[in-house]
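Chapter review: from sequence to fold.
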Amino acid sequence: MDRNGQFDKQLDMQLESELKLALRVADAADAFTLPRFIERDFTVDWKTNATEVTEIDRQAETLITDALVGARPSHGAFGEEHGTAGDESSPWRWVIDPIDGTSGFVRGIPVWATLIALTYENEAVLGVVSAPALGFRWWGGVGLGAHMHSHTGTTRSIAVSSVAALDAAQVSITHNSGWDRLGKTDRLVALQQQARRSRGMGDFWQHMLVAEGAIDVAVDAVGVAAYDLAAIKPIVEAAGGTFTDRLGEATYEHDTAVSSNGHLHDTVIALLR
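The token string follows.
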């Protein structure tokens, strides 16, 4: 990315190559995680933050990191389970969540995905979200557009909705105790009441539904991390949407996240402040 924040043609071409790599690695991750999910072939441990983790999370991250860094030794990598790998001084860094939605994974709920992002100088420029148990995969990035592939073999471009009024909008909200600690739970309730319809899709899925245009706004839990969000931001933006924290800053590195079709974003952020 140059000083004006624009990718030149050489970097656009590089992103096309990196996307092909990320999709191949997502294929390998799906081939590893999905059979174990179906067979319930894992044990569950608990992290210090009281969230679940399985050996499948750890092994999948190792598989993904080894494949990415092996193919791109000049790149760095950061994953949820094992931290940093590769060249930590590189402006290119892969950000990995091997299983986003582990709590659902361990209960047999199919709403989980492998998230693979590529960042350049800390800007998320490419994302792949692969949800094999749902039978869907999404990807997008700078100069790449946004796309979805289904288990039927169909691949199509995706774009956000054109809904411009909150009372006509469908929203997804993930409430947790973090919103209570912020004293903002009443703001979430107000958003639900003002929207046409509210659902709780959760995790990556709600943001991908925004990118598809199926819903119009997604508000995540408080306490999300960079590895939860880095792959999501470029897909939503490539689909024509807006992705920020709850205060409206366009980042994947804070602990809150709001995605929207863009038309409704200022209204939603004003409600959540």
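Two observations follow directly from the output. The chain has a mean pLDDT of 94. Residues 166-272 form a domain with the D-Maltodextrin-Binding Protein; domain 2 fold (CATH 3.40.190.80).
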